[in-house]
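EI: anyone free to look at a 85-residue chain?
SC: sure, send it
EI:
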Amino acid sequence: MNAADLHPASISLRKGRIHRIHAGLGRRVEALEGCLWITIDNDLRDIFIGAGQGFTIDRDGDTLISAVADSSLVVLEPVAWKRAA
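SC: here you go
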């Protein structure tokens, strides 16, 4: 994937700002710049991703994405695909 293609659809977060995703199971968060802290309701993990890294939301519930530094990110929808018959 060419990350430059994602910038027009990116979300900018200043340090300390939060982006909430409701019911995000299966969505993928890709960090384009900066550093992000991801936490999911009822999940004890603290997930940190930096530029060029991503995380697929693997639980239901609200997901909070917090900018540890000025950052930009994209949230990708899950891709439905069919197996060949």
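EI: The chain has a mean pLDDT of 89.
SC: 👍
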